[in-house]
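Hey Z.,

So I finally got round to the serine thing we talked about over coffee. Here's the setup:
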Amino acid sequence: MTIHDIRQKYFDFMESKGHKIIPSSPLVLEGDATTLFTSSGMQPMMPYLLGQKHPLGTRLVDSQKCFRSQDIDEVGDNRHTTFFEMLGNWSLGDYFKKEQLGFFFAFLTDKKLGLGLDPHRLYVSVFAGGSGVEKDDDAVMIWKNLFAKVGIQAKEGQQIFPYPAKKNWWSRAGTPEQMPTGEPGGPDSEVFFDFGVERKLHENSQWKNEPCHINCDCGRYVEIGNNVFMQYVKQADGTLKELPQKNIDFGGGLTRLEAAMRNDPDMFNISSLAPVIKEVEKISAHSYSVEEHRPSMRVIADHLTAASFLIKDGVFPSNKGQGYVLRRLLRRAAIKLYFLTDNRDSIVMLPDIVRVITEFYDDLYFNPGDFPLIQNTITVEISRFSHSLDRGLKELQKNPQVDGKFAFDLYQNYGFPLEVTAEILSQMGKQVDIQQFQKEFEKHKELSRTASAGMFRGGLADHSDVVTAYHTATHLLHAALRQILGTHIQQKGSNITSERLRFDFSHPEKLSEVQIKVVQNLINQKISERLTVTKEELPKEKALTQGALAFFGQKYPDQVTVYTIGDRKNFFSKELCGGPHVESLAELAKINIVKQESLGAGTRRLYLQFV
Ligand code: SER
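And the result:
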């Protein structure tokens, strides 16, 4: 079974339980300033978990593309990847714990309708209680009954393990104490697969002299799914209040499920990554079967997969935000290949690897034109980097004293990861002060953590009035550009903070001062006309026939939400969009287009602010 088969099987199973399939949201969420990337299935679902009605009802199922930048440095072992798909099923105030645990257990173990995994290899964790919420005895009972049905007398401490909030509570921010006001969350119950029955993976465990345990990270037990009972919302006084609707947020690791079915804990042997590893073998002329080459090969395979998906979703390499993360991925892959082959010229072959990635996900996530676009983007970035690579190597050679600070600068300025610096140095007979590097690194991590924590807090203003207003301004700008410059204009991406809107679109040349003024005036004229904004739910085909714009390259469900600005028939703007938006342009201030940038390759960027 490939991940495509498993995804389909899960959709079929959930459809038979009354769920409607929704497509994956992009990796960069429009109008969501809370995080740089979509890193869990629940992020795009936030408005619905908080009570907004979903056009397809209360039972939904999806497979969400996820990217976790915080895991970049973990990639190299047999199970960490930055990109993955998270299977999700959602109850929006519909079914709850008993049904959910029953669904997932049946999907895992049923030989016909599910994956037919051996229930003896499944272990679960539940919430042990804390922060004013009791231990989840319901979940314990439900699990006991489910295991009993397959002849296993499950007991606490044997198959079922209670853990405190640090392990068994889910919210975007972490434990109840870490949750900001207004954030939803709840206790969860995780399911683990035991890869160690026949293998001695726990040899690496710090617990090797005792029986290993499910939350040990030695790799014997791997989490394959998380059932979140999303039933609380954090209050300003620090307490937790029951949400008006109790939700289920289930997240399952698609690749990990294939690994469990193959009884092979190496995620890089699964259907989506094995062909990429094969390409890496070809261009490096090394075999994945040689233990010492594996970590580098895994980094290259994962990073190029993630980079392909990011570029597809509108990210360009740059020195900031999402673009910087993409740049780091590509540089890290290039450095790994350079040292794997000991040949600087080999890195120009990196972009070719992308073909097998786009082919594997063909139809589902990529269109035929995507391969050349992704390949070109990577080629440009890699050729740029090959110059810093030379300079970085020279710096290393001429500097007799390589302290941790210097190693860190190399990392920052030339994109040299520490282990690579250490590797080069050892070849030169020098050593790097790892401890000092770590200290610099921690300082840096602390900084970016605070930055992203700030972003997160500010981001919850995500549903605040000003962000909503910018969201509506996005539609106005899109429509105005198409009216003034032509309908070849397509939105390539957008990003909103409480201070401004950033809008990327396809257009072959720089806009003149006059063109910018005309676009700006047109938007301000519509704002002064106080046009109404109407929201309706329509079948997708009907919406498109009416002339509604769809976001390029994104897949939509059959039933969609459409926002119209102006008269229903004689509208100024009509777009497929999840919202939220203002109800009337009377709620908006006048706008200014404050800056224009070129992103190269026929893509331009404008910044818009309310006056
Ligand atoms: N939100 C949970 C997670 O990301 C389950 O979907 O693990």
